[in-house]
Amino acid sequence: MNFKMTLSQCALASVLFGCASTPVMNATEREKYLAQFVGQSSSYIQSHLDLAKLGYQNATAPFVQQNTLSYTVIRPISIPIPMAQNPALGAGAGTAVPIPTQSYDVSLQCEIRFQLQNQIATAVQLSGRTC
User: Fold this and answer.
1) What is the domain partition of the chain in residue ranges?
2) Which residues form the signal peptide (predicted)?
C-alpha cells in the first residue's frame, strides 16, 4: 500500500512538473491573445502586451518603424541529456562518468510583427519556429 502511494505521488509530481515547464498558451491561444491588439495604437500595444503570459522573454527592445511594430522574443527551454544506466567503458565498466550538466539550455527565437497604419495595428504576424 505504501509503495502504491509513493508511486502515485511520484506520478503526480512528474505531471505537475511537466505542466509547469510547458508554455503558458498553445498556438491558438497565442494567436487569439495577439489578435486582440489589432485595432489598438502602437503605444497601447507596447504598454499592455504581456510577453510572459505568452511564455516569451524580450530579446531586444520593441522596434518601431513607420508601418511596423516588431518584437524579437525568445523562449528559453532546457533539453534533458539522456544518461545511460551502465555504459560499457571497457575496464572501468560501471563507474560513474561525471557530466557537467544534466540538460542543454537553448533559447528559441520568434518575431512578432504588428502591421501599422497611422500608428494603429491592422494585422499581426508571427515568424520563427517557436511561434
Assistant:
1) 43-81+100-131
2) 1-26
- What's the CA gap between 34 and 110, in Å, rounded? 14
pTM exceeds cut of 0.70 = no
- In eight-state DSSP terms, residue 70 is E
Choose among 82, 62, 64: nearest CA to 72.
Answer: 62
Q: Encode 78-110 in three state secondary structure.
A: EEECCCCCCCCCHHHCCCCCCCCCCEEEEEEEE
CB 124 within 8 A of CB 35: yes
Distance from C-alpha of 129 to C-alpha of 123, rounded to nearest angstrom? 20
pLDDT tens, per residue, the chain with 131 residues: 444 444 344 444 443 344 344 456 788 999 999 999 999 999 999 999 999 998 888 888 999 988 999 999 988 888 887 765 555 555 555 555 566 667 877 778 899 999 999 999 999 999 987 77
Report how far residue 113's alpha carbon sits from residue 125's, in angstroms, rounded to the nearest whole number.
5
